[in-house]
Amino acid sequence: MTSLSVKIQDVFDEPACDKNRSKDAKARKEGCSKPLTPGAAAGGCAFDGAKIVLQPITDVAHLVHAPLACEGNSWDNRGAASSGPTLWRTSFTTDLTELDVVMGQGERKLFKAIRQIKETYAPPAIFVYSTCVTALIGDDIDAVCRRAAEKFGLAVVPINAPGLAGSKHLGNKLAAEALLDHVIGTVEPDDAGPYDINILGEFNLSGEFWLVKPLLDRLGIRVRACIPGDARYIDVASAHRARAAMMVCSSALINLARKMEERWDIPFFEGSFYGITDTSEALRKLAELLVRKGADAEILDRTDTLIAEQEAIAWKKLEAYRRRLQGKRVLLNTGGVKSWSVVHALMEIGMEIVGTSVKKSTVEDKERIKRILKDENHMFEQMAARDLYAMLSEGKADIMLSGGRTQFIALKAKTPWLDINQERQHPYAGYDGMVELVRQIDLAIHNPIWSQVQEPAPWDCQPAVKDDLASTKNGTDTVNALDDFAGAAAERLGER
Amino acid sequence: MVRILRNTKSAAVNPLKSSQPLGAAFAFLGVDGAMPLFHGTQGCTSFALVLFVRHFKEAIPLQTTAMDEVNTILGGADHLEEAILNLKIRTKPKLIGVCTTALVETRGEDCASDIANVKLKHVEELAGTEVVLANTPDFDGAIEEGWAKAVAAMIDGITRSGARTRQPKKIAILPGCNLTVADVEHLRDMVESFGLKPIILPDVSGSLDGTVPDRWVTTTYGGTSVEEIRELGTAAQCIVIGEHMRHPAKTLHGLTGVPYVVLQSLTGLKAVDRFVSVLSAVSGAAVPTRVRRRRAQLQDALLDGHFHFGGKKIAIAAEPDQLYQLATFFAGMGSKIAAAVTTTDMSKILEKVPAEWVQIGDLGDLEALAEGADLLVTHSHGRQASQRLGIPLMRVGFPIFDRLGSQHKLTILYEGTRDLIFEVANIFQANQHAPTPEALDPFRKREMPDELRSSPLTRH
Lengths: 496, 460
Description:
CATH superfamily of the largest domain in chain B: Nitrogenase molybdenum iron protein domain
CATH superfamily of the largest domain in chain A: Nitrogenase molybdenum iron protein domain
Oligomer: heterodimer
CATH class of the largest domain in chain B: Alpha Beta
CATH topology of the largest domain in chain A: Rossmann fold
Radius of gyration of chain B: 23 Å
Structural class of chain B: alpha/beta
Number of helices of chain B: 18
Number of domains of chain A: 4
């Protein structure tokens, strides 16, 4: 555990992170996430975070050294897409039994499991994940991986991120450390070129990076490694020969980006492929970084031309939605969308942002939001489920964009909802992705079910029924009145 | 005699199991005003929660004691106490169901006395909330075991003990975890049609049936009430559905003397007949006309459906009682159980599965053993195997995350058996291969009859 503790302290000290720099030394030591409240906590553990980051590497066998739950309850649950290998979707776990734990057979079983996978699937690499129980019983997965790698002649990479180490966010970073320690730089490519880049933190959910990659292809920019979305082991292992890198959206892999810059002189910037202006900005910055590293400057003009052409097409497509979406009120409840250019695009076609969560936003982000929304009352740190439900039930928004965690708050409040986090079904990156997002918003808001579910059952509209009865002319005779009422009701409910 | 083949692999490939604490939480979710609480790290809860949500398409109440490195070393009693009190204040549950995980069990925490201490220390704060404990380490058992342990824990902790005056019309029913929401609803209707009053524990039909309440509720809304659990001892008879529920029934019997009868499955004409006979005997009422009509419908479905089943090779992977339920169903229709895979070897029901052998294992085993089968029967994770083998998949059990409405699928009693026959026959009809001259050429390479093929046993 000591080496793990050192590692954790190392990732807690992140010079490239503004939020981290703004803390004093003591606060920094305590890490990024706030201490959890028992009985009132949500979110994944460090193992979860590590697996999320690494699992989309498609040709690697991911072996989870744990009792059943860690892998058994969570495999094949994310929508990253692969253009080739499917091994990453096959689940491997040592599924430790009570006997294994009590008898201390964990390491032996792990070694045999590695052999079994190597013999059956012959992958280029096996990633071995430690977990709470195997960390607690002191299984030395580093040693087992080392021995297995020597014996079987393939890369066996220990991923030290047991759940009890901390949050999902920490796990993201520990996964990056594992790549830095054991994978990146272990293979020397024979085709490195001046237009090679890395994309870090792009998961290719619903295949959305494929909406972006053709743009890069058109510019002659080659993606050396997209980590982790649709990656092959060899791409990651030779990623150190890229000339520039883009860190997508989130600071989850900031340690990876910063250390790759330090070790291999690969400059990076933080950008996003969500939204039109951000996509353009990202393309422009990539080209600029490549030129700075020695690529021909003519790429800058070509980039500007491509951007102008693509933006024009996208805005034209979006314009078609203005009539249907103008004035519709959007509630953004996610830490996921860091891209304010999405908000910008929605407002551009006339939608109104009635609220946004700023839980994960930095001070700068908040300033930016204030400028865009022109009303800081619309920002909230975090809204309790009950308050969110109340707000939506009262019809204060026409749609909520959020992650799966709050999906049922919107649906039970009979409010349109769209998933914009990792479980989403549609690709939203790049120019086409923005159009797709708006199309999905349109489909959600205008679905005919809303008028059906929002109206109460006809027999619950008592006042109307009583009026009918009272207005019956033969009101003195109860039997007649009821007959008339039944007849009238049948007439009302039947076909006209 | 069935041979039980133990698992000999070191790496489980594509697990069949979901974890034991998940099973326990599932059972607690069948109680009104309940809040299951995992005693472990936040990840244990998060994974189970996501899986529940993917299956039910509902917000699921499930909380965590959020253990971290420090309390794993120093002990988790404080976190457990804090979690229970926080839940009580924030969600006002009628029941907090604590499920332990591998982490605290490996550490050897004495959770029972921890909880006893919490209850003693906070008598007033916890008034109106029951706290029960199921010891459910992940390295042992699977959903069935966890489910049964939670039910036994609720009976043990809540039901008033001692012999009570029995209400002749009151029946306690302990359903296994393989019954869907629709199954439980239908079961209740059937029992009520005999003039009996069923108390079903757990009752997922009240809590996980997917409705739209008019306010936001953070616990379960619906299910067996705590009061009903307390008064289980006044039932005249307990009916147990599934071998894994025998233990909770024994617990009830031990506490209150309520006699129990175990019915291993309610699927298939004869199994349902047995159940209906029990109801008729307990109530003293004749079998209602409506039930007779349903039975006749099933007879007709058997007649219409059997053409599609005869000689078909079925590969099933499911928890023991569900394996038994489905294997007897298919065998009863003239199909052959070509592969039977299950989660654990603890259940006595495995001896009765109508197959030559039962493999304790995972979906990797199913995939290897199912080659040449006509139908795969397992949960949604079987989709990859189905695709690779080109064999259709019938989704059963938990989790089913890539199809809607699994909870509203009826699988028991005359009507459920009828529906299953239609579902399977329709899968076969949809996947029929048109005859071709090549396939029928008498000089083609012919398949050997089944008995001449090497037995799968030789592989082990």
